[in-house]
Amino acid sequence: MYDNKWGGLVSRVGARDAGADFGFGVYNDHHYHLGYFCYAIAVLAKLNRSWAHRFKPHVYSIVKDFMTLTSGQQSLYTRLRNFDLWKLHSWASGITEFVDGRNQESSSEAVNAYYSAALIGVAYGDVHLIATGSTLAALEIRSAKAWWHVPMNSTVYEPEFTRENRAIGVLWANKRDSGLWFAPADWRECRLGIQLLPIVPITELLFSNMEFVKELVEWTTPALKREWVGEGWKGFVYALESMYDRENALKNVMNLNEHDDGNSLSNLLWWIYRRSNDSNEQLFRCSCN
Fold this sequence. Notes:
Keywords: Carbohydrate metabolism, Cell wall biogenesis/degradation, Glycosidase, Hydrolase, Polysaccharide degradation. Belongs to the glycosyl hydrolase 81 family. Residues 1-271 form the Glycosyl hydrolase family 81 C-terminal domain. By secondary structure, the protein is mainly α. It contains 14 helices and seven strands. It has helices spanning 12-16, 30-47, 49-54, 56-67, 107-124, 127-148, 159-164, 188-194, 203-206, 210-220, 231-241, 246-254, 265-273, 278-288, and strands at 2-3, 8-9, 83-84, 89-90, 103-104, 170-172, 176-177. The protein has a three-stranded antiparallel sheet with strand order 5-6-7, with no helix packed on it. A two-stranded antiparallel ribbon has the order 1-2. Helix 8 crosses helix 11 (231-241) and helix 10 runs antiparallel to helix 11 (231-241). It is globular.
């Protein structure tokens, strides 16, 4: 439903309860949540052209909630609701005030939001939407690598912090936090996972630094020995492991009993085999024919 006061879309439950839907009713995580819808919509619009035409106004309303460039009285939505044109990355916090300012936990979900908006542009042949979404996704990736990813050779943070951490938990305007909103700092698998999910094609660009990928997985792996570590979080660790050790990662993935919401065995297998060698590509072509 449309909120006239703040110029955005909110859920009916969120409009009544500020704590529902992760605070969606008070504009928390709008780009995160709507990004998932945008990805699914882009696929559906590409496959079903009549549906795409019929619901185009509704589709564009979802995109405009977090990614409109129009401002002032001509726009029903807040201009670039989450994206900070000075910092060149998004903030996930909405209209709630915090002592340490704005914050963002998942850099990867932010990337997915703008990437998915660009995919909607592809589905509709909208070059303006493609350009805007692609630009914001690229800037979000650049910022994620600068602030949320912590390679061993990084000089962004002091040496003591860099020695102990390969990823930020939550980045605030006035501080950094090794913990997450839902997990303590020593749950490293959650820190890796929240900076990786969802696993989509653009994930390859977000984690293009193979040296850092290895460092991140090696830093995280000891945490998997804790009791009651969620199988879904393990899947994200193995997904990154597959970028440099496909055989071992595949074995680990096939031993999982469950997967995180928004992930699946088929998605992990697609990710693992997306860089097939020539023989596998030939086998795939033959099986399809």
